[in-house]
Amino acid sequence: MKKLVLLGGGYGNMRVLLRLLPSNFPEDTMITLVDRTPFHSLKTEFYALAAGTSTDKEIRVNFPEHPRLQAVYGEIEKIDRKEKTVLLEDGQVVPYDDLVIGLGCEDNYHGVPGAEENSFSIQTIAKSRTTFEKLCGLPPGSVVGIVGAGLSGIELASELRESRKDLKIKLFDRSDRILRDFPEKLSNYVKEWFVKHDVEVIANSNITKVEPMHLYNHEDVIDVDAIVWTAGVQPVKIVRDMDAEKDKKGRPIITEHYHLVDDENVFVVGDCASSDLPASAQLAEEQAERVVKVLKLRWNNEPLPEKLPAIKLKGFMGSLGKKQGFVYLADTTVTGRIARLMKSGLLWMYKRQNDS
């Protein structure tokens, strides 16, 4: 049997499985999915788990079942491209003929002293659970500092405000305005929501040091009771350690057909793949669509096109608690209740599609 191995059960490899199962791959091929957990986690909703407004079960989807789909659970220790094997920490060895790496990302602390040791994270479901326990266990009136005002930071701050109206929330934004790269209308809407709901946004911030109960912003020392880091990501260490050509962010460079420059049997999708487009679940899924196309053409002994269709992201959606939100789609901005309903509807459709 030929072996197609998928590393990571995130958005990219879930799309691969959706397109290949139940019968869109050769009968002489076995698919192996390697992940640390026995379910697909909805990473875009980890902020709600950490804030205590969604339960663990609400942000999980079962992996599909199929006679020629094998699930292997554990922590990956090494990808050995020479031997075409994946080594797990518990000693398991998973051989492959084709490999799709979709292991995602982890926090990037940008060399800030104490940031990793003294802050909480929402990058994995396990870390989000720990963050929930900390944030929702704080005494009334505690101060929470959220470092990074990208989409994750914005959604965490707003959802935490809805969960804990007694907390003092400080959101540190490196830019001069929220969502600086998007229309001012969108920025103003989010800013006004934070003002109305008493979330302090500290613009033009530069966190230079983190201590257990202190944030150093420029020359100011700010007392806090808990810190959550949402200020950027990098590929997971197993990918950063790979012997492959990488970009400035440590992400493997991929060809027009989404495999490594020097290895046509190793594909990379999602947050750990080099791309000019912003990392997102949408990007991972679009990359996965093209990987599946390449695999099918090869399986049928058909030539590959010189170029695959370019990826064009449709936009993004964000929530401000359970009742308000914002959408930027096809250069159009939608805010308020309708935007929140759009995001909830998309999440419902995704879960229904992947859990059927």
From TrEMBL:
Keyword annotations: FAD, Flavoprotein, Oxidoreductase
Stretches assigned to the FAD/NAD(P)-binding domain: 3-288
Transmembrane intervals: none
GO MF, one example: NAD(P)H dehydrogenase (quinone) activity
Cross-referenced Pfam families: Pyr_redox_2
Gene3D superfamilies referenced in this protein's UniProt entry, alphabetically: 3.50.50.100
Cofactor: FAD
Domain of life, per lineage: Bacteria
GO BP term, example: aerobic electron transport chain
Region forming the signal peptide: none
PANTHER family: 64 KDA MITOCHONDRIAL NADH DEHYDROGENASE (EUROFUNG), APOPTOSIS-INDUCING FACTOR 1
Family from the record: Belongs to the NADH dehydrogenase family.
Listed name of the protein: NAD(P)/FAD-dependent oxidoreductase
Natural source organism: Lysinibacillus antri
